[in-house]
Amino acid sequence: MLNGIIKENPVFVLLLGMCPTLGTTSSAVNGLGMGLATTFVLISANVVVSLLKNIIPDKVRIPAFIVVIATFVTLVEMVMQAYIPALYDSLGLFIPLIVVNCIVLGRAEAFAAKNTVGKSFFDGLGMGLGFTMALTLLGSVRELLGTGKIFSFTIFPENYGMLLFVLAPGAFIALAYLILIFNKLKKA
Amino acid sequence: MTYILIFISAVFVNNIVLSQFLGVCPFLGVSKKVETALGMAGAVAFVMTIATIFTFIIQKSVLEPLNITYLQTISFILIIAALVQMVEIILKKICPALYQALGVFLRLITTNCAVLGVAIMVIQKDMDLVSSVVFAISTAIGFGLALILFAGIREQLNLLNLPKAMKGIPAALLTAGLLAMAFMGFAGIVK
After folding, report:
1. Cβ of residue B174 closer than 8 Å to a chain A Cβ
2. Which of B119, B73, B146, B180 is nearest to A22 (CA)?
3. Which of A22, A158, A165, B56 has the fewest CB atoms within 10 Å around its CB?
4. C-alpha pair distances (Å), B188 with each of A45, A92, B14, B35
5. Which of A74, A97, A179 lies closest to B113 in CB terms?
6. Residues of chain B with C-beta less than 8 angstroms from the C-beta of A66
7. Chains A, B: CB contacts under 8 A, how many?
8. Is A38 exposed, middle or buried (CB count within 10 Å of its CB: 0-12, 13-18, 19+)?
9. Phi, psi for A154 (deg, rounded to 5)
10. Which pLDDT does position A117 carry in this prediction?
C-alpha cells in the first residue's frame, strides 16, 4: 500500500491523472476535496472490480470497469451536491471527470482485476492517498504563492502574492517544480 | 456571428488544454514528435465532434424526457468508449500506418477528459445542436493547435543540455506554463 504514496506516486512518478491535478489545485482545500473524492472512487471501484473479476468476461472488461467506476462517480457527485455544495461548485466539471481519471481505470485494470479484494482495497487506498497528498501539496503551494493563504489562513498579505499561480500557467509551472524536487529527492 | 465567437473563444481564449486543463494527459504523452501530434489531434477532433453529437442527442431525447439525467456520466462515457472502439477498427482498415503510430494513445482517447469534458460542457452551457458541433470542432482545433505547438517546442527541447532532474516532464511542464501564459494574452478578445 505504501507504494502508492511515495515510490509509485501516481502524480509525481507515474505522471497519471494530470487533468484534475492541474485543474483543481487553485487552492489547498480544492485539491484536498478532489483527492478525497477520487480516493473514495478508487477504493470502491477497486473492491468491486476485484469482487467481480471472475464473473466479467474478458472481452467486455474495460466497458464493465468503466460502468463500475462511473456508478461510484455519480454517487460521489450526488453526495457532494447534497452535503458540500460549495466544494461541488468549485470543483465543477472535474467531478464527473473522475470517471476518465487514468489512475482509476489504470488501477482497476492493472491491479484489481488480478488481485484479492483485500489487496485491491489497500492498493486503492495507497494510490488514493498518494494522489490526495500530491493534490493537496500542489494546491497549498499554488494558494500560498498566489494569495498568501493556506486553507484560507492568511500567512502573508495578498498584495505580495503572485496571482499567476492561481491561474492556468501557474499550475503548469508549480507542478513542474514539484516534480523536479521530487526527482531530486528520489535520486538522493 | 456567434459561431465565429464560439470558434475564437474555444481555440484561443479558453483553449481547452492551456486554460481549462482538459486533455493534458495526451498533451504530455503524444507531443514528442510533430507527426504523432498531428495524428492524435485529428483522431481527437473526429471522436470529439461525433461524440458530442451523439451525447447531445441522447441527453435531449432520452435522459431529459425520462428524467434520468443522473445517468449522464455513465451513458456519456459508454457512448465515447464505443465510438473510440469504432474509430480504432476503421483506422486499422483504412490507415494502418497511423494506427501503428498512435499505438496505445488511441485507446486512451476514451479516457481523454477533453472528449467527456466537451460533451458535458455543451449541456451545461445549454447550447443547441449546431452551436455544440461548432464548439466541439473548435475545441478540437484548439487542442490540435496547442498539441502541435507544444510538439514543435519539445522536439527542440530534446536537443538541449538540461540538468538531469529537469529533463523530460519538468521541462515540458514549464514550457506548457509559458505557452499558457502566452495564450492568456488572448483574454478579452471575446466580450
Report:
1. yes
2. B180
3. A158
4. 42, 23, 11, 32
5. A97
6. 77-78, 81, 110
7. 110
8. buried
9. -75, 125
10. 81
pLDDT in tens, B107-165: 666 667 788 888 888 888 878 888 888 888 888 888 888 888 888 888 888 788 777 77
Name the packing angle between helices A117-147 and A168-187 (round to 10°): 120
What is the CA angle B93-B97-B103, rounded to 5?
95
Q: Where are the alpha helices (DSSP H) in B12-95?
A: 24-29, 34-58, 72-94
- pTM to 2 decimal places: 0.79
Nearest-angstrom CA–CA distance, B148 and B31: 7
pLDDT band with cut points at 50, 70 and 90 for residue B190:
low
C-alpha cell read off for A156: 502573508
Task: Output the pLDDT for position B105.
Answer: 65
Three cell numbers, residue B42: 485529428
Question: Torsions phi, psi of A149, nearest 5?
Answer: -125, 155
Cα distance between residue B34 and residue B152, in whole Å: 6
Contact yes or no for A27/A143 (Cβ under 8 A) = yes
Amino acid found at A181 = I
Please state, rounded to an integer, the average pLDDT across all residues of chain B: 79
Query: Within 10 Å of residue B166's Cβ, how many Cβ atoms?
Result: 17
Q: Which residues of B are less than 8 Å from A71 in CB distance?
A: 74
Q: Would you call B120 an interface residue with chain A, using a CB distance cutoff of 8 Å?
A: yes
ipTM: 0.74
Whose cell is 431525447? That residue is: B61
